[in-house]
Specification:
The protein is an alpha/beta fold and 239 residues long. Helix content is 38%, strand content 25%.
Length: 239
């Protein structure tokens, strides 16, 4: 059953269609990858889904509800949260406080401070950061800053998590650990839609992959189908 659906989703910047008439769906419990060359429209699509941009034209539904034109905080409180291509954390604030913000302000009804603190501590343990809860987030490695973002997003009680290049800039060991984290997030019952350029990661953790090129969807299928698609090989994967 689809938790997220888009119909003819389009976004122009001036006369350029960054996303053009894209139909998509993500089923409950799936891990779906989104790939394509730089400039293909991947992050723009995430911005449309999360409410930073409004599609014109197009319709986006989350859990059957039309969220087209809703504000980002409204969409977040419905259970759809995200991370960013360039990490967006409060660098001077302790790691724990970064995660607490998700619990206190990103959930549908908010949480009592004691409950929010307990939840944040549990999530820091889940992402492997319990030892650095009092450390300013800006002092962490890139890999751990990304984990702070993930924990903060999960603190909003996310049912669907948009991950924008979680593995970008990571070394092979960190990439393997991030792949394992994605699998464990799914184990919590969270649906995942992820942009990624690391093909090992995409092929290893995704049930299905969607491909954008020049703002248009050119393929949608299993990792095996995408890896052997002549069209995808030609425009993105290479021989």
């Amino acid at each position: 059953m689809p938790i997220l659906e888009g119909e003819k989703v389009t976004k122009y910047f001036g006369g350029l269609a960054a996303v053009s008439k894209v139909d998509f769906n993500v089923d409950q419990g799936e891990v779906v990858g989104l790939i394509g060359p730089n400039g293909a429209g991947k992050t723009t699509l995430f911005n449309l889904i999360s409410g930073a941009f409004v599609p014109k034209p197009g319709v986006i539904r989350f859990k059957g509800e039309n969220i087209t034109g809703s504000k980002p905080h409204q969409i977040c409180r419905l259970g759809l949260s995200r991370t960013f291509q360039e990490v967006k954390i409060f660098a001077n604030m302790p790691v724990m406080q970064n995660v607490l913000l998700g619990s206190l302000f990103g959930t549908p009804t908010g949480m009592a401070s004691a409950n929010a603190a307990k939840e944040a501590a549990e999530l820091l343990d889940f992402v492997g950061l319990s030892a650095v809860g009092k450390t300013p987030a800006g002092g962490l490695t890139l890999a751990n800053q990304k984990r702070v973002e993930v924990a903060r997003a999960l603190a909003t009680k996310a049912e669907l998590l948009l991950l924008d290049e979680l593995m970008a800039g990571l070394n092979p060991t960190e990439t393997a650990e991030a792949m394992e984290l994605v699998t464990r997030i799914r184990g919590r019952g969270v649906t995942i839609f992820m942009i990624e350029h690391v093909m090992k990661a995409i092929m290893g953790v995704c049930d299905r992959i969607m491909v954008l090129h020049h703002g248009e969807k050119i393929a949608d299928g299993t990792p095996k189908e995408i890896a052997t698609s002549k069209t995808v090989i030609e425009v993105y994967l290479g021989e």
